[in-house]
Structures are given as C-alpha cells and as structure tokens.
Amino acid sequence: MARYTEAVCRKCRREGNKLYLKGDKCYSAKCILERKNYFPGMGRGSKLVPNAPKLSEYGIQLRAKQKVRNVYGVLERQFRRYFAMAVRQKGVTGENLLQLLERRIDNVIFRLGFATSRAAARQLVLHGHVRVNGKTVNVPNYLVKVGDAIALKSNDLTSVKLAVESTKKRPRPEWLSVDFDSRTGKILALPNRAAIDIPVQEKLIVELYSK
After folding, report:
1. Cα separation of 78 and 69, whole Å?
2. Least confident segment among 1-5, 166-170, 195-199
C-alpha cells in the first residue's frame, strides 16, 4: 500500500490551514504555520515570488478534495469509493461523504481523545488495540454504526495516557460519548454537517467528481 513519507506539515502549508496531522504540535507555538505561513516550494513567501498561486475553477475544486483526503488520511482510490457510496445514499451527497469519513474507526478513536492525531489512532487500530462491541477491529476504514460500543483492550498504553491528558479538556462531538477512566466510548448518533469541523465546501468535491 502506498504511503506518504514526506513531512506532513507541508500539507498544512499547501492548504493554508491547520489540518491537525501532528497531534499536540498543531495546538502549540511549534506549529509550522506559526513560522512559515506561506506555501511550500522554492521562493514561496519571498518578495520575488507571489505567495499564493492563482487557481482555476478546477484547481479550487481539486484543492477542496485534497484537503479532505489529507485530513482523513485516505488514498485516492479509497476516496472515490466513499464518494460512490455517498452518491448511492439518500440525502446530500457532500454531507453523506463527510459523514462516511467521520464514521471511520480511526477517526472515531481520534475524536474520542484516545489519540492525538488520526495517524496515531490508525496505528492503535492496526495493532489490534481497539474493540467494537467486544470484537477486535484492526481495519482503520471500519465504519461504526449508532449504538456501537468502542473500547481499548488495555488502559496502560503510554501513548493513550498521554493523549487522554492532552485531549481531556477539548470538547467532544455531540454524537459521541466517552469514559476516559475505562477507555470506552459509544456512538450516540450519526454525525451531521454541523458537527463536522472540517473547513471545506464539500459541494466543490461533488462538482469535481460530477464532470
């Protein structure tokens, strides 16, 4: 499977927004956007080279799609599959797409506060530390349903302890409930658009794939 092996902070600089890919670093003064708030690439941010390239209509739509892909850490083939699923569902296609991505188990672990980033949450899932309704789930793209009970196998993982301490005071989405002491959570409802804090116009993605 393909993996992105470059500096992930370049993605935030490319989009001009914090994508929260580096956990606690993104919430601190060490965030790359605090020091290099301009596009990556030779000469960017200097007086000789314009800071932001001009984008066509297609470019704007492409950037919207890439931003969502980068936030959730999915490849193009996976993303197209989610879009196809969203089209088949009732309702607004763009909102359906974001809801499907939010329902991924790695995103849920991140939202619950058991990991400081989606990449760290994905590692917990891949290593078999996560149970859904009592059964081990080691596939990051597993989609949770309303009523599903999420639990970690162990309460003693150092990475989880550190994550809980750093995320405990941050607000949780209303569609999730969490008990930090027992390392458990529950899916109370499916996320609606208002509960998804991704700064993107999802209709641009629909327009891109509808061409």
Report:
1. 9
2. 1-5
pLDDT band at 90 (very low <50, low <70, confident <90, very high): very high
Q: pTM score, two decimals?
A: 0.81
pLDDT at 80: 95
Contact 196, 168 (CB under 8 A): no
The sign of the CA dihedral 79, 83, 84, 88 is: positive
Return the closest-CA partner of residue 102 out of 139, 144, 62, 148: 144
Q: 65 and 101 in contact (C-beta within 8 Å)?
A: no
Q: Which of 1-15, 92-106, 132-146, 190-204 has the lowest mean pLDDT?
A: 1-15
CA–CA distance, 176 with 147 (Å, rounded to integer): 10
Superfamily of domain 104-190: RNA-binding S4 domain (3.10.290.10)
Instruction: Give, to the nearest 10 degrees, the angle between helix 93-102 and helix 76-88.
Output: 120
Domain boundaries, the chain: 9-100, 104-190
The full length of the chain comes to: 211
Residues paired with 185 in a beta bridge: 150, 178
One DSSP character per residue, 107-139 reads: HHHHHHTSSSSHHHHHHHHHTT-EEETTEE---
Q: Phi, psi at residue 157, to the nearest 5°?
A: -70, 125
